[in-house]
Amino acid sequence: MQQQALTEAVYYILLSLQHPLHGYGIIQNVDELSKGRVKLAAGTLYGALNTLESKGWIDALPENPESRKKEYVLTASGKTVLKEELLRLSELVENGKKLLEGN
Amino acid sequence: MQQQALTEAVYYILLSLQHPLHGYGIIQNVDELSKGRVKLAAGTLYGALNTLESKGWIDALPENPESRKKEYVLTASGKTVLKEELLRLSELVENGKKLLEGN
DNA sequence: CACGTTATATCGACATCCGATATATCGTGA
DNA sequence: TCACGATATATCGGATGTCGATATAACGTG
User: Fold this and answer.
1) Is the shortest CB-to-strand distance from A46 to strand C under 7 Å?
2) Is any atom of strand D within 7 angstroms of residue B19's beta carbon?
3) pLDDT tens-digit profile of A28-66?
4) CA–C1' distance A102–C13 (Å)?
5) Above 50 in pLDDT, residue B1?
6) A12-26, A60-74, B20-34, B77-91: which range is least confident on average?
7) Is A1 a member of any domain?
8) D25 C1' – A98 CA distance, angstroms?
9) Which of A4, A7, A89 minimises the CB distance to B96?
């Protein structure tokens, strides 16, 4: 139908990549951002990073031979997707508040 | 990891079932609620209704032999899930606004 | 030097969503 | 009246996303 809806994992990954960060750092950042609620499984994260890169929403930074870390960063296209997602989520919250109020 | 996150389809279905409604009515209601953005595919809807009923989040109302319509309604348990989901979505929006502001 | 953490990666299992397809009734305008 | 679009439910296969498990290895520290 539509292909706008991001999963929670992807949303938090993109939010984390407004500044360059590596995979494991994303897991920790998301954990912190969500106050421990969202703990990304390794399979989810590394799979998603590949998918997001092939979609052009994130870029892999040149690898640093002195480090094991592979850093990624949000692209302009990724930032657009992220902003649209925030609008979509806001709509969900508004509708939820409207229809649940008084309960 | 967690099993809290609802999909957009399920969220809107639950929101629609605070009052009794049948499947096709849900499709129309969600279309309207989302201003045409979310058009549930039939396979998504009828599959989800079965899943949600088996989870005890919605109940099927007694069938009316005079009508083709099968009505469903939210259970107390379903309402709890829906409220928790609204909190989760609010957290996503807050985090998104915080990290995207100034962009 | 052992052990927990950091770090990346792949795998199979499972759930969800989608579009397509099927079937049938209802309402309405030509 | 009859054709056609809307209403209404249902199932199917394919694609995708997430998970936990598993694997591998380097790093830091007591």
Assistant:
1) yes
2) no
3) 999 999 999 999 999 999 999 999 999 999 999 998 778
4) 41
5) no
6) A60-74
7) no
8) 52
9) A89
Rounded CA separation B93/B89 (Å) = 6
In a domain, residue A48? The reply is yes
Look at B95 and A34 and tell me if their CB atoms are within 8 Å: yes
> In this complex, do A90 and B93 lie within 8 Å of one another by their Cβ atoms?
yes
**Interchain pair B96, A103: CB under 8 A:** no
DSSP code for B17: T
Q: Please state the domain count of chain B.
A: 1
- Tokens at B23, concatenated: 């499947």
Mean pLDDT of chain B: 90
Residue A86 lies in a domain: yes
**pTM for the full predicted model:** 0.90
Residue A88: domain span: 8-101
CATH number of the domain enclosing B79: 1.10.10.10
Give the model confidence (pLDDT) of B15-34 as tens digits. 999 999 999 999 999 999 99
Tell me whether residue B53 is in a domain.
Answer: yes
Residue nearest to nucleotide D6 (CA to C1'): B24
